[in-house]
Amino acid sequence: MQPNTKVNESMKKQQLKILVTGGAGFLGSHICQRLINENHQVTALDNLMTGRLENISNLQTNPNFKFLKHQVEDAIDLEVDRIFNFACPASPPAYQKDPIQTTKTSVLGALNMLELAHKNNSRIMQASTSEVYGDPEQHPQKETYRGCVNTIGPRACYDEGKRCAESLFFDYHRMYKLDIKVIRIFNTYGPNMDPCDGRVVSNFIIQALTNKPITIYGSGKQTRSFCYVDDLVDGIFKMMESPETFTGPVNLGNPDEFNLLELAELVLKLTGSKSKIEFMPLPQDDPTRRRPDITLAKNMLGWQPKINLEIGLTKTIEYFEKIVK
């Protein structure tokens, strides 16, 4: 199957009014930056629960950029041409801190943004997640796989919230012919990550830079696939500009698979740290294997990651070195 090169060019030809929920977060801030670079009018909406104003400080003086502190589960009325719905804590410590709020953000937030898109007749993208696959029994994970999720476990607020949001998106598409795009994001890392968010890449780098023990939960043999943020944002924009007939869901991630011991050793090598590795008990429902099948993204979007783990980690370490200092 050949890549579908017939894309929606409207974002490139005219200035659009674009809403980015979670706009001060890790991924949202990168999306805002790229949209501003393309001369769009951008509104970043964030409650700053995990988002950080530092991530968008360089945009605040741009006349095309506006920041709104707002809870996405509360309805809002704006005139928009596009919506990137990226509002939700994504790291387990953050989303488990207030699981009820996490579910509200995912479900009520999606509902409110879908209503806004329906009112404006605008295209809307849902940032879904590889967590919809749970602790997968299929490897690698294809979009057709329905997952293995514990609906009553401590991670369910995020996993099930995102699954419900996907359901709402496709119901709005079926009922109202709403122009939707759904992406399933696999582990992503890079500049603008919160150093205290508890994700494995930021944890390992901060621990290494401060010569504290690198904590690995479980045996360290569990695997992840790490995608550098610039690659992911390219995939996000290719999906947003793809033909209306391609709704997704589509996996966006790096298919190169590493176990956590390999990641820790690479971080130690790149930082020159003298940190020791310590092993801790594996949290409940933590996936043992995670790797995307990106065949659909290759065929429909002509997309695949280009930045390997060592290069991406080097760039990320440079970012965190400035924070640590």
Give a written overview of the molecule:
The chain is α/β, with parallel strands linked by helices and 325 residues long. It has a domain of 220 residues: NAD(P)-binding Rossmann-like Domain (Rossmann fold, 3-Layer(aba) Sandwich). Helix content is 38%, strand content 17%. It has ten helices and 13 strands. A seven-stranded parallel beta sheet has the order 3-2-1-4-5-6-11, with helices on both faces. Strands 7-10 form a two-stranded parallel ribbon. Strand 5, helix 5 and strand 6 form a beta-alpha-beta unit. The N terminus is likely disordered.
Secondary structure elements and pairings:
Layout: H1 10-13, E1 17-21, H2 26-37, E2 41-46, E3 65-69, E4 82-85, H3 92-97, H4 99-120, E5 123-129, H5 156-176, E6 180-185, E7 188-189, H6 200-209, E8 214-217, E9 223-225, E10 227-228, H7 229-240, E11 250-252, E12 257-259, H8 260-271, E13 277-280, H9 295-301, H10 309-324
Parallel strand pairs: 1-2, 1-4, 2-3, 4-5, 5-6, 6-11, 7-10, 8-13
Antiparallel strand pairs: 9-12
Helix pairs in contact: 4-5, 6-8, 6-10, 8-10
Key phrases:
325 residues; alpha/beta; Rossmann fold; 7-stranded parallel β-sheet; two-stranded parallel ribbon; globular
